Every structure is written in structure tokens, then in C-alpha cells.
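Why does residue order matter? Because the sequence determines the fold. Keep that principle in mind as you read this record.
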Amino acid sequence: MSICRCSAILVENGELTETAGDVCVEETFRLYLNDEFLADLVASPCQLEELGAGHIVCEGLASGISGISDAYVSGNEIHVSASEVKGPKRSDYNVTVSKEDVFDIMSATTSETWKKTGGTHCSVLFSDKKLVVKSEDVGRHNTVDKVVGSAVLNNIDLSACVLGCTGRQPAAMVSKAANAGIPIVVSRSASTDKGIITADTAGITLICFAREDRFTIYTHPNRMC
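Structure:
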């Protein structure tokens, strides 16, 4: 993660003090799919190949490991070569999690960058109860793209993974997991009604408000063991 120091004025108890603090860096990257411009992505300048590959998969524009043939960065451009597919996957996989697993996953989403800046989100992928990928970014959507992209580029089976996130889970976020074929999503934050409907339709177990000693299971609780 890229961090810079910025000067500021702290107002506390009516007193003004000149100070400086750590701030996250964000940049804009142009994403190309098969040499055609697709979108501008505002993101932290790290894990950019993973960001590009994961964004293509998470938006349903290509399948997983077999769908991405190349991903590279040139300046502020991210280029991905992929075969196109249609429609999200349905998560019918036999992955399960325990209460202890949920809390382990959430513990893994903590980061030193967030402690310093308060300006990042984090996503993680667990497989066979082990942390396999961790990504941070200024955007919560980007963190999911990055962990999925890392899995795709490293031949990690997403259908055997659990996704842990710090961000909210509206429909657009849950759809990323659905397009990637991830069967379980755990979040520290809330969902929305459309996020829950999307998870239910896609066959995803959606667990939110995973904090301290509690969490809420919204869909497909059969994967809890």
C-alpha cells in the first residue's frame, strides 16, 4: 500500500494544532479488455494485474482461471486478455464454515495500513481454513477484485474459497462473488435487501455484522457446521 504524509490542522477541545498524518494514495487506472478500453478504475497503486483480472471475472465478463489468458500493467494502463462468457455462476459447492472460522476470517481483515490511516478496506480469501490471499485498497469493490484476480492468476480454486470483507454487501458486491463462483461471503458490515436477494438467488451463504462475538446469517445457513 502507498501512503503519504499530509499536513493538517487538528481541532480538539477547541484547540487548533498544526499536525501531519498518514494518508492513503489513490490513482486512476485505465482498464483494457482484449485491447479495448473498458473503464477507469480509481484504486490504490498495488496488485494492479490482480485488480484487472479480478475486475473482469467479478463483472461477469470472463470465466475464472480458464478465462484469463494474460494481465499486465503499462504505465497507468491495465491490460487483460480474456475469453468472454455470459451469466453468473451459481454456488452449489460443499464448502462449510464454523463459528470459529467466521471470527478467524474477520481477524485476518485487520491491517496496519488501516490502523495508520483509517482509509482502506480489506478482503481475504480462505481455502481449507487457511488464508490464501489478502488485499487492501481505498475502494471496497477493488479489494474483492484483487483477491479474485490473485486467485485466478495463481490457479486457486475459487469454488473452494470463503471471501471475507470489511465493506458493505449491496447487490453489486455480492454479484462479484457470484460471478467468481465463491460460495460463502463474510462481512464485518451490513448488507442491503438487494444484496440479500442476490445472495439467495446465486446460492451464496451471506454472513454480515461479523464483529466481536456475533454475526448474522442471511442466506443458505446450511453451510454452517
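The helical segments are 48-58, 99-107, 112-117, 140-153, 171-180, 193-202.
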